[in-house]
Amino acid sequence: MTSIRQFQVTFDCAEPERVARFWCEVLGYVAPPPPKGFDTWDAYDLSLPPEERGAWFACSDPSGVGPRLFFQRVPEGKTAKNRVHLDVRVGTGLVGEERLATLQAECTRLLALGATRVQVLLADEDNESCIVMQDVEGNEFCLD
User: Fold this and answer.
1) SS (H, E, C) the chain
2) Which of 118, 116, 123, 86 is nearest to 101 (CA)?
3) Nearest to 27 by CA among 129, 115, 118
4) Per-residue pLDDT, 83
5) Are 16 and 54 in contact (CB under 8 A)?
6) CA distance linking residue 114 with residue 22, whole number of Å
7) pLDDT digit string, tens, across residues 83-133
């Protein structure tokens, strides 16, 4: 059996480019250059049939370490809790008040980008603090 070394995370959403650009800001990811023969993504998009315009967008880790994120338009809206979510690891190695302050600072930054804070889960005997959030289309993720 071979090991899988790369994977892509795919988001179903209503506005792929909007959600992708949000995650670029969250993770420091970048959008790829437009396809060959096009100066901008808008120019590429306008070359497509109307029903295909804005149907997808992608972004990737500029260092090549993290997975590519792919965003595809779907007709239905989000109706239930995600079965899979991203943990944005901003507090790794931190504990107690220092960890919580770091998580809160990142939460404040992401709120300005359009995220929503859902719940602050404070540390207990088994787990450190984390903050449950939603992206610009309501997909859950955690600041961990």
Assistant:
1) CCCCCCCEEEEEECCHHHHHHHHHHHHCCECCCCCCCCCCHHHHHHCCCHHHCCCEEEEECCCCCCCEEEEEECCCCCCCCCCCCEEECCCCCCCHHHHHHHHHHHHHHHHHCCCEEEEEECCCCCCCCEEEEECCCCCEEEEC
2) 123
3) 115
4) 80
5) yes
6) 8
7) 889 999 999 999 999 999 999 999 999 999 999 999 999 988 888 999 999
Token pair recorded at residue 90: 């901003």
Q: Please count the other Cβ atoms lying within 10 Å of the Cβ belonging to residue 63.
A: 8
What does the pLDDT look like over 36-92, one tens digit per residue? 999 999 999 999 999 999 999 999 999 999 999 999 999 888 888 888 899 999 999
| pTM strictly above 0.85 | yes
List the Cα angle 93/94/98 in 5-degree steps: 170
- Token pair, residue 123, equals 């540390």
For residues 28 and 7, give the distance between their C-alpha atoms in angstroms, rounded to a whole number.
Answer: 18
φ/ψ of 71, rounded to 5, equals -120, 125
